[in-house]
Amino acid sequence: MSKNNKISALSEKDGIIKPEIVSSQVAKHIQAFRKQEVSAAELIEKIILGDRVALSRAITLIESTNPIHFEKANEVINGCLPYANQSVRIGITGVPGVGKSTFIEAFGTHLTSIGKKVAVLAVDPSSTLSHGSILGDKTRMEELVKDELAFIRPSASGESLGGVARKTREAIILCEACGFDTIIIETVGVGQSETAVHSMVDFFLLLKISGAGDELQGIKRGIMEMADAVVINKADGDNIQKAKMAQIEFNRALHLFPIKDSDWQPKVTTCSSHTLDGITEVYEIILEYISQTTQSGYFNSNREAQNQYWMMETINEQLKNSFYQHPEIIKELESVKKQVVQHKISPFLGAKHLLELFKK
Ligand code: GDP
Question: What is the largest CA-CA distance in the chain?
């Protein structure tokens, strides 16, 4: 894949939707469908009927950076909105190598085996920052990708984490309208990506592996505070004992944090994504959380707060974009920056001057 392809919002990364596992008949259908110019109304209709090709296409539309796609994308999102919201949204984070894709493969397969429809999305700002993606550049979730009840989509790319996150937030709506009742959002600890994912999910899961007794080192405190569950993966073979020790240590640490707004006491459990031990227990914890927070009203109030947050975030992002794309700002920005560096004007005066140009 060329570098240009990699950074295009319209490209699909290798290893996620693999052509060889798509039957030739489906491939022909996809090709024919992609060639047609499909209206927003048609896309909405197909998505609601559970058509994944339409879903993929609509997500590509919302990921597009081409302004001519914006209106159609918004139309599709609005059309899907009344059919969204009926799902459980689960965020999963953990450092590279902890076993996220292996876990999601095992966990997702468990969910589809009990009849759930699972969509896996990713927020990977590294696909923007370094033009190399941490989550999408390897063959991942080979079984789940073939599963009729699963839909896997790599991270969007964009100029900022805010942009990537907003596109993922919109993709959630489309996936839900398409009938996916369990949405998994995967991320790695790059920048503020965990915070962004936390603000779009109902349940946030931190995946860990046991170390040499220093389990709590190197974890950003904020991430521990966000976690509704810490799952210690790779609890198999010689690791079982160490994983149990880590479980005790994490449990102790989590009890020291202030009580969450949800009133939920975060749980710590162990699992192996290879032997599948403990995988069903992870889902049971999530079900218990949903039951508790639905009863208390937190589940809904949290979603309402998240919707408001995303509206404000979108305003912030779009204001920022229109500021930097304003012809006067493009013309003046560098020279004002220079004047600030040379102490000819203060940073505040420079900002005031540019903002006035923007408001004109
Ligand atoms: P990611 O970077 O977090 O997505 O991690 P991967 O899912 O790619 O896994 C990294 C490595 O850990 C791979 O070699 C996996 O086979 C291995 N791995 C993942 N889960 C387990 C597990 O439960 N037990 C063991 N023993 N290895 C695992």
Answer: 68
Ligand 1 atom, smallest distance to 207 CA: 3
Count Cα atoms within 13 angstroms, Cβ side, for 135: 30
- Summarised one tens digit per residue, pLDDT across range 41-62 is 999 999 999 999 999 999 999 9
160 CA to centre of ligand 1 in angstroms: 29
Residue type at 95 in one-letter notation: V
Using most ligand atoms within 8 A of CB, pick from 273, 279, 281 the residue to mutate for ligand 1.
Answer: 273
Tens-place pLDDT, residues 274-310: 999 999 999 999 999 999 999 999 999 999 999 999 8
Top mean-pLDDT range of 2-11, 156-165, 299-308: 299-308
Amino acid occupying residue 187: T
* 37 Cα–ligand 1 center, Å: 41
pTM assigned to the model: 0.84
User: With helix as H, strand as E and coil as C, how does 71-102 read?
Assistant: HHHHHHHHHHHHHCCCCEEEEEECCCCCCHHH
Contact call for residues 208 and 250 (beta carbons, < 8 A): yes
CA of 29 to the centre of ligand 1 (A): 35
Q: pLDDT value at position 16?
A: 42
Residues with CB under 6 A from ligand 1: 94, 96-102, 233-234, 236, 272-274
